[in-house]
Amino acid sequence: MTAAIAIADTSGLAAVSMRAVAARLDTGAASLYRYLSSRDDLLDLMADRVAAELRPYPEPDGDWLDTLVRMARAQRAVHERHPWLFELSQRASAIGPEALAFFDACLKVMAPVQASFAAKFEAIGMMNGVAILFARKRTAGEALTFVGLDVTPYPHLLAAFSGPVSAPPATDLFERALRSLLRGLLTTDGA
Amino acid sequence: MTAAIAIADTSGLAAVSMRAVAARLDTGAASLYRYLSSRDDLLDLMADRVAAELRPYPEPDGDWLDTLVRMARAQRAVHERHPWLFELSQRASAIGPEALAFFDACLKVMAPVQASFAAKFEAIGMMNGVAILFARKRTAGEALTFVGLDVTPYPHLLAAFSGPVSAPPATDLFERALRSLLRGLLTTDGA
DNA sequence: CCGCAACTGCGAACGATGTTTGCAGTTTAA
DNA sequence: TTAAACTGCAAACATCGTTCGCAGTTGCGG
């Protein structure tokens, strides 16, 4: 449901209650059960609907690694647009047709790579993990800056914060990390 | 609370209700609020209690990469012992003293590495992500094997499953991935 | 030993949640 | 026209986290 996604985008996943969604649709909560079997169903639909934003998949032109990085960038963008997607991605049932299609497209890009299916599977999982991690980077940074914690028992943490505050921007840390990881995962000489 | 962790280990996080924990302690739900301010408090305490299992931290002997891999192995073991920890790790408030101590220990190991604090921060985050991903590998594998999905629209997925089922074990995929990632993240020549 | 203040445990109740039920109202088909 | 099927939805139920208020206990100054 588009209404549910709108609520999640503005107020978070917890605000997506059956009553809230129904109210946005000017109806009662019970009416939703004519179209959904449960709230989990709704969440799955939301996840798959949003996974459709990964389209169109890039054509595998040139280097497969470049193409994969491009797809990972799309994943990161989606996770930045819909922060709640992270909470859903851990649910096994959230793997819907769109997620499978993306998975399939990744495999297609990896076709020229000589590696086992298990390795490719792992690589796609890592790609997803990296995209999520970087999408949440800003949030995580704030989490450590929040007040009220005495850092004196952690000498190295203290030293790190005492140093120059703004580090060199480390441009494209995302891409560098992803590239080195995928290369290490999918080639034999990269160990 | 040890009781709450026991419930989560056997029945999942959702089963950790105030009433369930109280029942295990032969008391009423309201009594818990003499010691906890809310359920979130309880979850934070659980996360930190379990983070203590990462101790003792290895002494930084020899190569820093070896030491980090050892610490990541410990993380993976904890996540395999307590699968629910993953759900908690996304909550900012779950960063307690034990988590900070681990973070500090990582920074200590990284002391000889010449990289910005931002890069090290990112590297620790990735390390955590990789550990979680591999801890959940078996679950994820089952998720794709589950029945009821027609894979015909996904030709590359189908081809992958049609191939030899059991791939070469890919021993130490965990360590290879981690090593290539950390090296790429923390050194300048690894791009 | 008393009396009073502070603390502790907890049954009962409140609001909110996901879900089920039952019943009107409406559409469809014979 | 009429019976069957479908649709929307208010009301009710179970369960959740949390609060309230009251007994029972403890600690302490007189």
Short description:
The structure is a homodimer of 191-residue chains. The first copy, chain A, has 191 residues and is an all-alpha fold.
Distance between the termini of chain A: 45 Å
Largest sheet of chain A: none
Uncertain runs of chain A are: none
Mean pLDDT of chain A: 83
Number of helices of chain A: 10
Q: Structural class, from secondary structure content of chain A?
A: mainly alpha
The rounded Rg of chain A comes to 20 Å
Q: Determine the oligomeric state from the structure.
A: homodimer
Assign a percent range to the helix content of chain A. 55-70%
Please provide the count of β strands of chain A. 0
Q: How would the global form of chain A be characterised?
A: flat
Largest two-chain interface: A-B, 60 and 60 residues
SS strand fraction of chain A: under 5%
Provide structural commentary.
Chain A has helices spanning 2-11, 18-24, 39-51, 64-81, 85-89, 97-109, 117-135, 137-145, 155-162, 173-186. The first copy, chain A, has 191 residues and is mainly α. In chain A, α4 packs across α7 and α7 packs antiparallel against α10 (173-186). The longest helix of chain A is centred in the middle third of the chain and has 19 residues, at 117-135. Chain A starts with a helix and ends in a 5-residue tail after the last helix. The mean pLDDT of chain A is 83. The interface between A and B is large, with 60 and 60 residues. Chain B binds a DNA duplex (30 and 30 nucleotides) through residues 17-19, 22, 27-31, 33-34, 38-39.
